[in-house]
Amino acid sequence: MKARLVLMVVVLTCLFAFAGTISGPYLSRNDVRLKIPNGFPLPDYTFKSNKTEPEIFMIGRKLFYDPILSKDSSVSCESCHQRYAAFAHIDHSLSHGVDSKIGTRNVPSLQNLIWKKTFMWDGGVNNLEVQPLNPITNPAEMGETLPNVINKLKASSEYRRMFKKAYGDTLINSERLLKSLAQFTGLLISASSRYDKYVAGKDTFSSQEKSGLELFRKKCSGCHREPLFTDNSYRDNGLMPDTTLNDKGRGKVTGLVNDDYKFQVPGLRNIELTFPYMHDGRFKKLKDVLNHYAEKAKGNTELAQIGPLSEKDKKDIIAFLLTLTDRDLINDRRFANPAFIK
Ligand code: HEC
Ligand code: HEC
After folding, report:
1. How far apart, in whole angstroms, are the C-alpha atoms of residue 135 and residue 46?
2. Is the pLDDT of residue 43 over 70?
3. Where does residue 228 rank: exposed (0-12), middle (13-18), buried (19+ CB within 10 A)?
4. Ligand 1: which residue has its CA nearest to atom 42?
5. What is the pLDDT of residues 256-306, one digit of tens each?
6. To 10 degrees, the CA torsion angle through 104, 110, 115, 120?
7. Is 67 exposed, middle or buried (0-12, 13-18, 19+ CB in 10 A)?
8. Prior bond of 227 cis (ω within 30°)
């Protein structure tokens, strides 16, 4: 009896120790290797000049969750890009930054970024590595300067230790900061939804979901192209401009009148989790989005492919959109706040 008890304790201790190593905050090279999902195109950002390493990725991950990047240590990247919302900001139509300042746009989800050549709703940024300069220095987001951030990191023994481990020396500069963040954001890949499994023949769809996919392919995929659910173009999908924000979108970046009020076609993965919708978060529910398309498709040449949408069509399309939720990404411990993974 006693021997069995001792054996049980030994087995349990081993199990806990093992669980500790696989779930712990330390990652292996394999954990941070880029694996291009089946059926996905070659990415635009390849990590060629920013080779992924567990220690560098971990710096990026810590920075992402650290309010040290903001001027008063009140806002981190994660304040706006929440993990359980596929790194969008749930239930906030416009972004919220330091000093309770409200931004002018809805926070997009962060996923499959390495397949994008341009970022932001208007494509105003064209490099994943320099992208964080924008939120760090934007007065309505983090309101900080890069030199200040570098000085704060240099003053932190924890960051000095992490940089030493990653690079062999304690040099902390903007290049290392930005590259580490790009390793974290670039590896946020969503390719494990029920839709992906269905396409790979590993899951089944209900008849409603099947009908939704068929309708989607006919009516929506001209802009929301599979498998990323965007063709990375800028379009006007018929939204009435908000007169207070008067956001000209792409037109502001290119200066072309023809681009006014065009916005980046968002990828629709994890759409269930990333409400509210559109560049200004004007729609709370997917039903509102479908009602918009049903209404605006009439007489709009850009939206001609949509055609009439019956109540059943709308429901079927929504049922299909819900198959794009990817719990594997949301629950992936590699992307969790390192302060909470023990
Ligand atoms: C105050 C809220 C806020 C904070 C803090 C914030 N972001 Fe964002 N982020 C946004 C908004 C809003 C946009 C869209 C901006 C636009 O279109 O003009 C965005 C866009 C992005 C994009 C482009 C996504 C795409 O698909 O085009 C990336 C990448 C990103 N943020 C990463 C980060 C990182 C990394 C940090 C931390 C250094 C960060 N963000 C901090 C609100 C925030
Ligand atoms: C002409 C191109 C085009 C077509 C066709 C189109 N969309 Fe869109 N879609 C867009 C653009 C552009 C946006 C972003 C608009 C904005 O925010 O100003 C968008 C936004 C969305 C959003 C909100 C995404 C988010 O993250 O906020 C959803 C959901 C959506 N579309 C679903 C659909 C469905 C379903 C169909 C088919 C019935 C469809 N779209 C057809 C271009 C298109």
Report:
1. 23
2. yes
3. buried
4. 107
5. 999 999 999 999 999 999 999 999 999 999 999 999 999 987 778 889 899
6. 10
7. middle
8. yes
Residue 120 in contact with ligand 1 by CB distance below 6 A? yes
| Burial (0-12, 13-18, 19+ Cβ within 10 Å), 56 | buried
Output the average pLDDT for the chain: 92
User: What are the tens digits of pLDDT across the range 112-167?
Assistant: 999 999 999 999 999 999 999 999 999 999 999 999 999 999 999 999 999 999 99
Q: Whose CA is nearest to atom 39 of ligand 2?
A: 220
Q: Which whole number is the average pLDDT over 312-339?
A: 97
Which ligand is closest to the CA of 261, given by its number?
2
Radius of gyration of the chain (CA): 22
The alpha carbon of 61 is separated from its chain's Cα centroid by a whole number of angstroms, namely 14
Q: What is the C-alpha to C-alpha distance for residues 100 and 51, in angstroms, rounded to an integer?
A: 37
Structure tokens at 114: 């390495």
Please give the pLDDT value at position 22. 35
Among all bound ligands, the one having the nearest atom to the CA of 68 is 1
- CB atoms inside a 10 Å sphere around CB 35: 10
Ligand 2 binding pocket (C-beta < 6 A) is: 219-220, 222-224, 235, 237, 239, 263, 265-266, 268, 271, 274, 277-279, 289, 293, 302-303, 305-306, 317
